[in-house]
Specification:
Layout (H helix, E strand, L loop, with lengths): L8 H4 L11 H13 L6 E3 L9 E6 L2 E13 L3 E8 L2 E10 L1 E7 L5 E7 H14 L5
Antiparallel strand pairs: 1-2, 2-3, 3-6, 4-5, 6-7
Length: about 140
């Protein structure tokens, strides 16, 4: 189900709780919601649809990747500064991002995964991980 995008700064500033198999419908709703906003959105955290669970979804190539309980296990020492936008609020914010990261997470089938990302995909993941910590970017 396509869900509305939350713009409530109080809700968005809350830390998210761990996700489990009972949250898979939320993950599916996130995939449908991001697809409906594909012209303006490449990543989404569950709090963006009002659910305070540690779930992110992002576009990678022609598909959407779902991560439950993502944790950065490694980050490159190389960083860069960039201005990012978000569907949840107006304006851009300057942030520092790592050029590459390695993330451990559960996939949509609840399998443990670990994968390295770089470039724009690493940036998207870092942005969504900020959401899970209640950081507004």
């Amino acid at each position: 189900m396509i869900r509305p995008i939350v713009k409530d700064k109080f809700l968005l500033s809350q830390k998210s709780a761990p996700a489990d198999k009972n949250d898979l419908q939320t993950a599916q709703d996130m995939v449908e919601t991001i697809a409906a906003h594909s012209h303006e959105c490449v990543g989404m955290a569950a709090n963006m649809i009002g659910v305070l669970k540690r779930i992110i979804v992002f576009e990678e190539g022609a598909k959407y990747v779902v991560m439950l309980n993502p944790v950065v296990k490694w980050e490159s020492p190389e960083t860069y500064v960039i201005k990012e936008n978000c569907l949840c609020h107006e304006g851009a914010k300057e942030v520092t991002r790592h050029e590459a990261i390695e993330v451990e997470f559960l996939d949509i089938r609840m399998r443990k995964c670990r994968k390295r990302y770089d470039g724009i995909t690493a940036e998207i993941i870092q942005h969504e991980l900020d959401h899970l910590e209640g950081i507004l970017v």
